[in-house]
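Please think about what follows:
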Amino acid sequence: MTALDDVVTDDHPGSAERDAWTCAFDTEEGGAWGLHRHDQHQLVWTAAGSARAVAGGRSWVLPPSRALFVPGGVPHDVVLRPPAALHCLYVWPHACPLPWTRPTVVAVSGLLRELLLALGQTGGEGPVAAPTLALVLHEVAGAAVADDGVVLPEDPRAAAVATRLLADPADDTPLADWAARLRVGESTLRRAFVTGTGLTWTEWRSRARLQAALALLERGLPVTSVAARVGYASVHGFGTAFRRRYGTSPGAWRS
């Protein structure tokens, strides 16, 4: 894990002269800029494809139906799987009435989607007028979703395993094999997950897999295919775990 003191603050040219602006990225952008922070709040959203956002020591998978509000100063990174249409809204804290101090998942309504698309239609960076900003923030304020994401372990060895599994949730390598590769005891690696995330290795892997399933379900893939692509050998087991985590079946969530 990167030490917080080493996280660079990214300052956009001309940012001091405007309360808010948007940036629409090229569809072939892969992201993965590394942990960085902004003095401004940021709303991360993909109009197509999906993003994996890391913020405040947690990870979220964001299909187009979800965005992530990242408070100013919070270290974060965004990884995309091209083609993905990433849109980011930046707002200075003095122009944002939202009280959120932690990364917060937001459900993207039809209106919010159209507003963000309109703001990004010219491509690149563009200003946001005060009335439009007020409407966007009003939509965001009422759309918070109770999703605390996947906690990332602080131990660098456990973090290396976590990063690999977030990139490929179907990887079924046993923990003993990971431990051997990293030249650490299996029990030590197992404890690192519990200590760093509050979850056992099995619980953590299941949560990471279920997060990854959201974007695949939203793309319309059959539940059987989604289950296999995120590492579940059984559709029944996938459905049971999904209902336990999200309170509904995979098919109902997609609907």
Summary: The domain at 4-145 is CATH 2.60.120.280 (Jelly Rolls).
